[in-house]
Amino acid sequence: MTKKVAIIGSGFSSLSAACYLAQAGYKVTVYEKNNTLGGRCRQFIKEGFTFDIGPSWYWMPDIFDKFFADFGKKRSDYYTLDKLSPAYKIFFADDVITVGDSMEKICVEFERIEKGSAKHLRKFISQAQENYDIAINKVVLRPGISPFELVTPETVTRVDQFFKTISGQVRKRFKNPKLVSTLEFPVLFLGAKPSKTPSFYSFMNYADFGLGTWHPRGGMYEIVKAMQALALELNVTIKTNSAVEKIVVNQGKTTGIQVKGNRIDTDYVLSGADYHHSETLLDASYRQYSEAYWAKKTFAPSSLLFYIGFEKKLKNIEHHNLFFDTNFERHAAEIYDAPQWPTDPLFYVNFPSVTDASMAPEGCETGFFLVPIAPDLEDTPELRNQYLELILARFEERTDQEVKNSIIFKESFCVNDFVEEYNSYKGNAYGMANTLLQTAFLRPSLKSKKVKNLFFTGQLTVPGPGVPPSLISGKLVAELIVKNT
Ligand SMILES: Cc1cc2nc3c(=O)[nH]c(=O)nc-3n(C[C@H](O)[C@H](O)[C@H](O)COP(=O)(O)OP(=O)(O)OC[C@H]3O[C@@H](n4cnc5c(N)ncnc54)[C@H](O)[C@@H]3O)c2cc1C
Description:
Blueprint: E1 4-8, H1 12-23, E2 27-31, E3 43-46, E4 49-52, H2 61-69, E5 81-83, E6 88-91, E7 96-99, H3 103-113, H4 117-137, H5 153-156, H6 160-163, H7 166-173, H8 177-184, H9 203-211, E8 214-216, H10 221-233, E9 237-239, E10 244-250, E11 253-259, E12 262-265, E13 268-271, H11 275-280, H12 291-296, E14 302-310, E15 320-323, H13 328-336, E16 347-350, E17 365-373, H14 381-399, E18 407-413, H15 415-422, E19 454-456, H16 467-484
Parallel strand pairs: 1-2, 1-13, 2-9, 6-15, 13-19
Antiparallel strand pairs: 3-4, 5-8, 6-7, 10-11, 11-12, 14-17, 14-18, 15-16, 16-17
Helix pairs in contact: 1-10, 1-16, 3-4, 4-9
Bound molecules: flavin-adenine dinucleotide.
């Protein structure tokens, strides 16, 4: 008899799992509390401006391609991908580093900053490439059940890389602080400080310099549309505006969910909502992790975000722009060590309309500003405005132009919205960090240890934060459910 699976949430991991389970013959229904799909990757359209609400960096194109290939499809059946050239720009207080779209161009830029650094860079990236092959083709494809999953002939010879940090390895090879920040930037996607991230994760540097930065024409939401189309082709049923209120357990086994007060029977429940929230849908005795457990974990930052429509084209900018013109260590300490609103924050600005005319009206610019902050901070309109003023002033100074008087509209999103919109623990933006003690089998489990037929997926479980890992997480949990049947 066909087994039924109810999936909570419609983020990338949920949509990925939905497709794999439907392909394996299950009757899959996705229940999403919001009115559109995609989880943290939603779209906001206003007055002809198109914004991606969450993720904006398309890295690791091979993982997306593999996902579609698993269903006999090509990514290009659904959306067009452009390689960005340059990939991005980093503004420092006294210089600007442009990261090109090839190792050759990046080496020239490194040599300009530090003589002799290109040779070290090539070696570093070649080692990062080896780690990428091991991580992506072997380690992350394991479900995080046992420590032995990390033991492969390749990782055994690299054990030291799990105990050294990315920060230490970069500083050993490069002296110039701007090059150090450039090479430490990619692991920020993993949610922890580079000084707390194992050097094995240098594979993120290969993802950056080796594989490049891409843009789906029309924005990141095109990926969600593609996955939704694929899910529908596979006969997945999708229900929006359907918050799951309870996971029903009968004698230690889940037998259903509750939506809008109605009981819905199912054989399996898979939650792709924030793990902490998912467990609150269970009676306390069925939860695996206590509040004390979650409180001790290192969470990825939250973010203060602004979506701004500008009535003119801006100058001296690229599609992706990092403002690393203040003290990186102090901002990191204000996120992780002594959580507080940052004194002088680093920030990121995305202008998709620089390379994709469909994202803004003619002669205008679509701007997405992001300030990483500690989760759980007080979030008020006054604080949001104060930081908007601060970053716009710095943006104007660094890019040498006036922009404040060209704002048509601005919207913001911060800690309270992450909680309200996604049931996010403490308003985290992108899950639980990948530190040494929060890697693989040390992360919250894909399979409930207390309730039969209950599974979890997404950025708080394996392999971790980011869109590509979420696609993989969905695949891993689907395989576990199939094995369990
Ligand atoms: C601002 C920002 C920038 C980012 N930038 C990047 C980037 O550039 N590149 C990158 O690769 N990654 C980036 N990320 C990370 C990436 O977006 C996430 O890791 C990924 O989208 C998480 O997917 P997920 O499957 O874990 O689920 P989520 O996206 O968290 O989705 C969970 C879903 O569950 C729903 N839900 C919650 N509770 C319930 C309930 N009770 N009933 C029904 N539904 C429920 C929520 O509404 C949500 O839709 C960024 C994230 C943010 C927030």
